[in-house]
Design a protein that fits this description.
The complex is a heterodimer of chains A (343) and B (557). Chain A has one domain (10-53, 122-337): MetI-like fold, CATH 1.10.3720.10. Helices cover 64% and strands 0% of the residues of chain A. Chain A has helices at 10-20, 22-43, 95-104, 131-167, 169-184, 187-198, 203-213, 216-229, 233-240, 245-281, 293-305, 310-337. Chain A is elongated, with a radius of gyration of 28 Å. Chain B has 557 residues and is of the alpha/beta class. Chain B has two domains: 3-257, Rossmann fold (3-Layer(aba) Sandwich), CATH 3.40.50.300; 332-362 and 375-550, 3-Layer(aba) Sandwich (Rossmann fold). Helices cover 34% and strands 24% of the residues of chain B. Chain B has 20 helices and 21 strands. A six-stranded mixed sheet of chain B has the order 7-8-9-3-10-11, with helices on both faces. A six-stranded mixed sheet of chain B has the order 17-18-19-14-20-21, sandwiched between helices. In chain B, helix 8 crosses helix 20 (542-550) and helix 16 runs parallel beside helix 17 (480-497). The two termini of chain B are 33 Å apart. Classes of the chains: A mainly alpha (343), B alpha/beta (557). Chain A binds chain B through residues 1, 3-7, 9-10, 20, 232-234, 236-243, 247, 252, 255-256, 339, 342-343, and chain B through 14-15, 17, 351, 354-356, 378, 383-384, 386-388, 390-392, 395-400, 402, 409-410, 413-414, 421, 424, 428, 438-439, 441-444, 446-447, 457, 460, 463-464.
């Protein structure tokens, strides 16, 4: 069949409206840039070796002159090992073997002169890790935690809100009871409780904690939307046609609440990135072999006493830019997806 | 002359969109102590004209023509600044709107809202304002004004709310009252009372009224002069009597003709195109309705009851009996009309018969079998064979589905058509049948007008080949010219498929036109029923008589 003049769908229209919003487009570009960085870091193309100690301890950022105190090792100085180690006049019992190995692998078995940078682009931390690499690797962890936990919370909240609002009566009452319980227990107490039950540290634990505690906001809004829509005439008409409850809930009503859900999703992402920092601060954060913005800020606490502010600045700025861009994008998305604003 | 509008031109432009000329070169006069009616369908520019008189249009997107003038006592209001306009608004020119509920602030009592205007504009003290507010309430005919003064808007009925709005409007004794569709949201008996009130007040307070309406029948009741507008232009203007008895303009003729006449029942209603084409009008044969209804009974409703629990206090519930013991029969290919005012239970009855609400008592028999016994399961597909067309064409179509999706979904759900291509073919045929173009298939509901959406809703019902179609106020939200087209379509479909209709409406002439048999409902019960023509010609019950006498008597044709 010839399909003449297919008209733009609501998503196309929303995209057009978003394009007209300059602030929205800039924030979208920033968010996409961050996502690209996360993707590259995940694939191991960048920031794979953040654990390498490339600089001197607390190497300052490049635009700062390097400290000339005794702890700093001058650039380019090689620490050459003596050919034969003689400690306290004793003959090294393994010296002949070492000689043999050296003879067999003349290139590899030489002691490598270690080079440490005096300054790094964004400075170095206590062990001389490059802060720039850490920020990039940390954004991978933080953004992933934020995205996955927000997805989990949103799916949970949407399904529960839909069921609760659509069926009403005792179903609604029981979900509302659950909602009441979750919102009346102090947030931190709830997190401690879930962490105690899960009994292990790690990225997936953080995601579970945030996802299981963060669904309440989505639930409230989606439930209200379903209450509003379930008695709309298009839903009644679908019922008269023989559409099942599931079909009415998820095929007819869900697309009409998508603007609420999407905005909640992006607000949750922002909120959870911040929560990860708080969790790290409380000791429920990522394990020591993983870096996140939260763990960086946590380390920065002690560094600040020594006047080493660059790790805090790097992680804080990276987070602030993303959170701001994401919030602005959320506002733009809400306007673009609202079917009542049409032009 | 009190108010003269000269060459009014209003153009809206937002962003990079093409400018839209809402009002084009409109001129008319409102004489002192007279009522002028501004008549037109939606989009005719009548409300925009009214709002521009008070300078209430959104300034950012509004462009006025260079030679546009709105002369108030000879002075051009369009040249006034915001402060000067505020002095005119309310004090010299007052306005009332269509929705009284949304015009009143729900968190303040009626008295507070009345007194606010009096104290601000006339500088009265609190006790003075309270006394005056009491006077105003009794002047607009609100019973027990002393008690009503401390009532909140939601505690009043729609008619009383509109009376309060009128009281606020006349509180500063304006010289001109602009009434924008003041009775459209009200029942026919209440409409009659409000019209009477406006007419009395106009004479007693020596003011002029600019009455804006889409209903030509009302004009004859209230106005001495009329201006007919279409697409932002004046089509015809003059004193009511010559305009209605001998309309010169084709559009005015069409508007007068497309309402179902109360006396006779033509085969089909004339539509705008018949008149605008300029061809001579063909004679339309009359349709026979009523008569012997003992043919094949397809649907029978026996003593139907439907209750809603209403919360009273903290724990107690009271049952609100929305439908009380209603019985009727529908024969194949015939129409049962149900009339009643808002709150009479007619919509609840329709939803219950359609199976969308569970009945609390009584029986619904479809082809002799009880629908209640099927208990959720519906092996014979009876439910599907009763379909419903709703009132609001904007809410009854899912805004996120294309029309094609809307039409093919019921086919898919009921296993009709087999393949996707076959379903698409059926949907396209139905689109053509209800008079929509082929490319509507790929479009979204928001791209269609109200009448077109109602056609889509009808096509959706037709997909499952229903035997009974319940039309719940299906044409009430439409302009009269579109209403005629949809009514014609419904009649054609009835002839073609031998469908039975349950036609629910508050509009008596439409129900009479469509029905073989009519039920009059009041407070959930059937007050009177019988053959449509007989019932309308000789109503026996006092309630029916009151209802019929409240219908605005149009011109004599």
């Amino acid at each position: 069949m010839a399909q003449p003049n297919a008209s733009p769908g609501l998503w196309t229209l929303a995209w057009r409206r978003l394009q007209r919003d300059r602030v929205g487009m800039v924030s979208l570009a920033v968010v996409v840039a961050y996502l690209c960085v996360v993707f590259l870091a995940l694939g191991g193309w960048i920031a794979r070796d953040w654990t390498r100690e490339v600089g001197v301890n607390y190497a300052p950022p490049v635009f700062f002159p390097a400290d000339q105190d005794e702890t700093a090792i001058p650039l380019g100085k090689s620490i050459a090992l003596p050919d034969q180690v003689d400690l306290y006049g004793l003959q090294d019992p393994l010296a002949p073997q070492l000689e043999a190995i050296r003879a067999r692998h003349p290139d590899e078995a030489r002691s490598i002169p270690e080079r440490r940078q005096l300054t790094l682009p964004l400075g170095g931390d206590k062990w001389g890790h490059d802060v720039l690499t850490k920020v990039i690797k940390g954004s991978e962890t933080s953004i992933l935690v934020g995205l996955v936990a927000a997805l989990l919370a949103t799916v949970l909240g949407t399904v529960m809100g839909a069921v609760s609002g659509y069926f009403g009566r005792w179903v609604d009452d029981s979900f509302n009871w659950l909602y009441g319980v979750f919102t009346s227990i102090p947030y931190l107490l709830l997190i401690f409780a879930i962490a105690a039950v899960l009994q292990q540290k790690g990225v997936s634990t953080i995601i579970l904690i945030l996802g299981l505690t963060g669904w309440t906001g989505v639930f409230r809004l989606v439930r209200a939307e379903y209450l509003k829509h379930k008695s709309r005439e298009y839903v009644l008409a679908a019922g008269a046609m023989g559409a099942s409850h599931a079909r009415r809930m998820f095929i007819h009503i869900l697309p009409n609440t998508s603007h609420v859900i999407l905005v909640q999703l992006s607000q949750n992402v922002v909120g959870f990135i911040k929560s990860e920092v708080i969790l790290s601060f409380l000791g429920f954060g990522v394990p020591v072999d993983v870096v996140s913005w939260g763990s960086m800020l946590n380390e920065a606490q002690n560094e600040l006493i020594l006047g080493k502010w660059w790790q805090l600045a790097a992680a804080g700025t990276a987070m602030a830019i993303l959170v701001t861009a994401f919030s602005l994008l959320t506002d733009a998305l809400r306007d673009a997806l609202d079917p009542k604003l049409k032009y | 002359m009190l108010l003269s509008v000269r060459n009014l031109q209003v153009t809206f432009q937002s962003g990079k969109e093409a400018p839209f000329a809402a009002v084009r070169n409109v001129s008319f006069d409102v004489p002192e102590r007279a009522t002028l009616a501004l008549v037109g369908e939606s989009g005719s520019g009548k409300s925009v004209t009214a709002l521009s008189i008070l300078g209430l249009l959104p300034g950012r997107i509004t462009r006025l023509g260079d030679d546009s003038r709105i002369l108030w006592h000879g002075e051009n209001l369009l040249g006034y600044g915001e402060a000067a306009l505020r002095a005119v608004r309310g004090k010299e020119i007052a306005m009332i709107f269509q929705e009284p509920m949304s015009s009143l602030n729900p968190v303040f009592t009626v008295g507070e809202q009345l007194m606010e205007g009096l104290r601000l504009r006339l500088g009265m003290s609190r006790p003075q304002a309270r006394t005056r507010a009491l006077e105003l309430l009794s002047e607009v005919g609100i019973p027990e004004p002393r008690r009503r003064l401390d009532a909140y808007p939601h505690q009043l009925s729609g008619g009383q709310q509109q009376r309060v709005m009128i009281a606020m409007a006349i509180s500063c004794q304006p010289q001109l009252l602009i009434a924008d569709e003041p009775t459209t949201a009200l029942d026919v008996t209440v409409q009659r009372q409000i019209l009477d009130l406006i007419r009395t007040l106009q004479q007693r307070l020596h003011m002029s009224v600019l009455f804006i309406t889409h209903d030509l029948a009302l004009v004859n009741e209230i106005a001495s002069d009329v201006v007919v507008m279409k697409d932002g232009q004046v089509r015809e203007a003059g004193p009511c009597e010559p305009v209605f008895s001998d309309p010169k303009d084709a559009y005015t003729k069409a508007l007068l003709a497309c309402r179902p006449p109360l006396g006779e029942r033509p085969m089909r209603l004339r539509v705008i195109e018949d008149f605008m084409s300029g061809r001579p009008l063909p004679e339309i044969p009359l349709r026979q309705r009523g008569g012997d209804l003992s043919g094949e009974i397809i649907l029978e409703v026996k003593n139907l009851e439907k209750n809603f629990p209403v919360r009273e206090g903290l724990w107690r519930h009271r049952l609100f009996r929305a439908v009380r013991g209603v019985s009727f029969q529908v024969s194949r290919g015939r129409t049962v009309g149900i009339v009643g005012e808002s709150g009479s239970g007619k919509t609840t009855l329709g939803l219950t018969v359609a199976g969308l609400l569970k009945a609390d008592g009584g029986e619904i028999l479809f082809e002799g079998e009880s629908l209640q016994k099927t208990r959720g399961r519906d092996p014979a597909g009876f439910r599907r064979r009763i379909q419903i067309v709703f009132q609001n064409p904007y809410a009854s179509l899912n805004p996120r589905f294309t029309v094609g999706h809307i039409l093919t979904e019921p086919l898919l759900l009921n296993g009709i058509g087999g393949t996707a291509a076959a379903r698409e073919k059926i949907a396209l045929e139905l689109l053509a049948r209800v008079g929509l173009p082929r490319d509507a298939f790929m479009r979204y509901p928001h791209e269609f007008s109200g009448g077109q959406r109602q056609r889509i809703a009808i096509a959706r019902c037709l997909t499952v080949k229903p035997d009974v179609l319940i039309c719940d106020e299906s044409v009430s939200a439409l302009d009269v010219s579109v209403q005629a087209q949809v009514l014609n379509l419904l009649q054609d479909l009835q002839d073609e498929y031998r469908m039975s209709y349950v036609f629910i409406s508050h509009d008596l002439s439409v129900v009479r036109y469509m029905s073989d048999q009519v039920l009059v409902m009041h407070e959930g019960a059937v007050v009177e029923s019988g053959d449509a023509d007989a019932l309308f010609a000789r109503p026996r019950q006092p309630y029916t008589q009151e209802l019929l006498s409240a219908v605005p008597k149009a011109w004599n044709r």
